[in-house]
Amino acid sequence: MAEQVFWQRKRLEEMTPQEWESLCDGCGKCCLHKLEDEDTGEVYYTDVACKLLDQDTCRCRDYANRQQQVPDCLVLQPAEIERFHWLPASCAYRLLAEGQPLPDWHPLVTGDPGSTLAAGISVAGCTLAEEAVDPDDLEERIIYWVN
């Protein structure tokens, strides 16, 4: 019987920093501006990207210093998994926190860092720069994913 891979045998809080970071599939969805309904707590994503998101690669242009440049950038921590409900339904952090498996297209499963883009899961080429959108117009930019 084959040995289980780390994400199948470890809880999120048991992962090394490298394992934790490798869970990110690079979809870029968490880097989109979001709106929360104050009454229901439901989170709505827009197609407006953070100023640091490279819209072609869906990677942060300054990941190491993102909180200095974007103070409200949320850094995911294993100790806060109960707050992961706002992450996209396809996100590995959310899936594992909810006891679900990684999807077949995830780079850790495929061994291919481009598999998220190939599966049509990423927001590459589908976003607007935040500088191009008036913050008062964010409600008009709400999007819904099929995946």
Automatic annotation (TrEMBL):
InterPro entries: Puta_zinc/iron-chelating_dom, UCP006173. Belongs to the UPF0260 family. This is UPF0260 protein QWI16_16995. It comes from Gilvimarinus algae.
